[in-house]
Amino acid sequence: MRRKLLGLLGFGTGVFAGSVLYRRSNGRRRDRVDVYFDDGSMVSFVEGSPEAEKLLRVARGVLGTGTP
Amino acid sequence: MDAAQALADLTEISSQIESAVLFDEQGAVLGSTLADRGAAEALAQGAAELLEEAAAFRSSEAAVTQLEASTHEGSVFVVRDGARRIAATTGASPTVGLVFYDLKSALRGTAEAPPAKPKPKPQPRPRKKKEPVDEA
Q: What is the mean pLDDT of residues B54-83?
């Protein structure tokens, strides 16, 4: 009986941990812009920053026109 | 390779690319996968604006070579090589490295062949000095 209970508890913990990991990896990803420069450097502007908002507005416009 | 051929190869190789446009530094469209000329020009204009805006955020002299704008609706890629640029749109969550690689290959494919180097002229052989005849 106790063994069965422990097994169930282990299974439940596994399911919970799996769902947390799944939500973390597939959860809401933020829009962003990655810019690469000729000196080898890269800057990433994440949604919410003024730079990203400016670039993402243009990008959304481009995506609207780029529909074949 | 001309622009149309390079773009045709690009869309054949990369199934992730939904539309692509090749343009120059003035924003003039050199080729596009879009049937509508107006849409191709708008895509080129938007891509040029992205490059310009992104460069403005950098204080140093470094130039933008490529960028990716990722949104939930899809992604916009822009790659620059000299005076030529290529922009492409994809769906959400594309394989970024692969798309950049394919775009760079397409851009390289359209680059004009370098002018042939003139064949160097063969150097004339130095003449042998005549040895003075010993008259003794």
A: 92
* In the predicted structure, residue B45 carries a pLDDT above the cut 50: yes
Q: What is the pLDDT of residues B32-44, one digit of tens each?
A: 999 999 999 999 9
**Which residue from B42, B60, B73 is facing A65, i.e. has the nearest CB?**
B42
Which pTM value belongs to this model?
0.75
Percent of chain B with pLDDT strictly greater than 90: 62
Which two tokens mark B29? 């469209």
- A63 closest CB neighbour out of B54, B57, B74: B74
Question: How close B46 comes to chain A (CA, Å)?
Answer: 6
CB–CB contact B64 A35 (8 Å)? yes
Q: B3-110: which CATH architecture? A: 2-Layer Sandwich (3.30)
DSSP state of B57: T
Number of domains in chain A: 2
To the nearest whole Å, the CA of A39 is away from the closest chain B CA by 6
Angle between helices B3-13 and B96-110 (to 10 degrees): 160
- Contact present, B110 and B22 (Cβ < 8 Å): yes
| Domain region containing A15 | 1-28
